[in-house]
Specification:
Elements (H helix, E strand, L loop, with lengths): L1 E11 L4 E8 L12 E7 L2 E10 L5 E7 L7 H7 L5 E8 L11 E6 L3 H14 L3 E7 L8 H5 L7 E5 H4 L4 H6 L6 E5 L2 H13 L5 E4 L15 E5 L5 E4 L5 H7 L17 E6 L2 E2 L7 H6 L2 E3 L4 E2 L3 E4 L2
Parallel strand pairs: 7-8, 7-10, 8-9, 10-11, 12-18
Antiparallel strand pairs: 1-2, 1-6, 2-5, 3-4, 3-6, 4-5, 12-13, 14-16, 14-18, 15-17
Bound molecules: FE2/S2 (inorganic) cluster (FES).
Length: about 325
């Protein structure tokens, strides 16, 4: 589902990060939650996913913070080139990084621009009086574009800004060890930070670490690609997916209208239920327990271990 929206406010937060507020010109945005992201349609086929950092409770507007990556693939440069008043399509919101419940203490870790969903979670948890601690990790004070917004949560000592240039690299093991073993930990940030948290979590045998990536997982399956068949349950049509093809691409060519976003297995927009067959998960969205269920898959990148999959389409 997409919404026509206007960029109603663009606020420069730092040398390379700006906040973009999109106001719906259609019905109010639905399904807004901490951890959710939107697809921003930037023109010329560019669609990029950005986590919500703020929103209007009635859904009239949503806001994201975007870091300009000059060496990136062009999405963030296109976003930063937008001027207030620009009208564009917004997909979602959708959420694959939801808060699961917070009866126990919650530790929120945000690294760099990955702190945007962490800010939304922090604001929500603070408003409910939950026992929450927030650590915002950046390279320098100049990079800490969201520091004022975190400070506004009035968490006192439960909020800490850690700048590597000032305090040296953060000792992730020590940070995790300082959090009660039963407490939930939510983390979003650059891959090295994410890996450090996940590895420390394994060493400390912590079962409650929730994370979101904004790039493909480095350990994503790269087993050889084989051909397989896909059956569309509603029509009975069977398609062969050749090694160089994706299920999404083949079904789009056959004129199926399927929601999608990143086409890289990161956003979860193309998730489809699977009725039969064994999935070869190659996305960076699903957690291990979700993969083990073999119930749904990202059809932009994932494939089949069995010769055929039956999709609930
Ligand atoms: S389109 Fe983003 S995961 Fe498939």
């Amino acid at each position: 589902m997409s919404t026509t929206a206007r960029l109603s406010r663009k606020t420069i937060l730092s040398h390379d990060i700006a906040e973009f507020r999109f106001e719906s010109l259609d019905a109010p945005f639905q399904g807004i939650e901490p951890g959710a992201h939107i697809d921003v349609h930037l023109g010329d086929g560019l669609i990029r996913q950005y986590s919500l950092c703020d929103w209007d409770p009635a859904g009239k507007w949503v806001a994201v913070a975007i870091k300009r990556e000059d060496g990136g693939r062009g999405g963030s440069r296109a976003a930063h080139a937008l001027q207030e008043g620009a009208v564009l399509k917004i997909g979602g919101p959708r959420n694959h990084f939801a808060l699961k419940g917070h009866a126990t203490p919650v530790l929120l870790l945000g690294g760099g621009i990955g702190a945007t969903p962490i800010l939304a979670m922090g604001r929500h948890l603070a408003s409910t009086g939950a026992d929450v601690r927030v650590v915002y990790l950046t390279r320098s004070r100049a990079d800490a574009a969201l520091h004022d917004a975190f400070t506004a949560l009035a968490l006192g000592d439960a909020y800490r800004l850690h700048c590597d240039e000032v305090a040296g690299f953060c000792d992730i093991d020590e940070l995790l060890a300082s959090h009660p073993a039963e407490g939930d930990i939510y983390v979003c940030g650059p891959e090295p930070m994410l890996q450090a948290v996940l590895e420390a979590g394994k060493r400390q045998q912590r079962p409650h670490i929730h994370f979101e990536r904004f790039a493909a997982a480095p350990d994503r399956s790269d087993a050889p690609l084989g051909a397989f068949e896909v059956e569309v349950n509603s029509t009975g049509q069977v398609f062969t997916i050749a090694p160089e093809q994706s299920i999404l691409g083949v079904l789009q060519e056959a004129n199926f209208s399927i929601e999608f976003g990143c086409s890289e297995g990161i956003c979860g927009a193309c998730m489809v239920n699977v009725l039969e067959g064994e999935i070869d998960h190659r996305d960076s969205v699903l957690a291990d327990d979700e993969r083990d269920q073999n119930d749904y898959m990202c059809i932009c990148v994932s494939r089949a271990k069995s010769g055929k999959l039956k999709l609930d389409l």
